[in-house]
Amino acid sequence: MDPNTIATSSSYSLIATLVVGLIIGFIANTIMGSGGLGIIWSIILGLIGSFIGNFLFALVGLSTFGLFGQVLAGVVGACLLIYVVRRLRRV
Description:
- By secondary structure, this protein is mainly alpha-helical.
- It is 84% helix and 0% strand.
- The chain is built from three helices and no strands.
- Helix 1 crosses helix 3 (66-90) and helix 2 packs across helix 3.
- The longest helix is centred in the first third of the chain and has 30 residues, at 3-32.
- The protein is globular, with a radius of gyration of 15 Å.
């Protein structure tokens, strides 16, 4: 395989992951409300939370199929992370 092809496909994969993560962050921010964090921090937490959600779904044995399943798990994880961060900020 051509090394340039591998680098290009990896770049597209990373960009797609970031875009989906940002969309998940936006959805989580809409569900949870801004809560004083601001849209940018909520989107960043959503991006991180999407990884957490997919990990938690796998941990409890729930399978996510396709883009919809990944987004659903990501939104759940992002909402949980936003909730935890808000609680920690109030302490």
